[in-house]
Amino acid sequence: MTQSGKPDLQNARDPGFLPFKNELMRKSLHVAALIIPACMLLVDKNITALLFGSLAALGIVLDIIRAFTGPIDSRVVSFFGCLMRPREKEPSSGRIVVNGATWAMLSAFILVLVFPVQVAAFAFTIFMLGDAAAALVGRRLGRIRLGKSPKSLEGSLAFLATSLLVSTVFPGINFWHGAAASLAASIAEALPLPLDDNLRVPLVAAAIMLAVQQM
Question: Residue 54: in which H helix or E strand, if any?
């Protein structure tokens, strides 16, 4: 239940549910992660690709170690547990669970490797800020469910509004190109698709923006 006494939509529908305070802490990291698109814009592309690729590889290795080493897994959960979703805290039993930070770094690596720098930076930015807005607004105000998805219409609209706002201020981005990418990203974020949204949403946003730019 929320503080207002109304049922919490995501608590009922979302296996990745976190208490609001924990969700707020987790999403605050999204703001800190804006250093990633800043690096994309300010640092040589080859250097950022090497950096993000190395960090993604390190994250995958650590996730594999966690899966097969109980004591290390326990230490990670005890230290970062308040920020981890339930599926990320599953006991190590040989099943590899890739955490959200690893997915995000893999996403940054693919973006900078495949797409023009401005497109990559914009796509990552709207996901970081839009996803944070969607989670927090959806948690507090979400009442209209989107089919079988645990997401709410209110959260998705918050994602779209935040992304459109970014489109108006992001340097060198045509607003309408940004709007098309924002709409595609908000739909990709809302749909209950198998790929982790830290990977799925920025790549969809970048692909749509690139396609619109070339029309």
Answer: helix 45-68
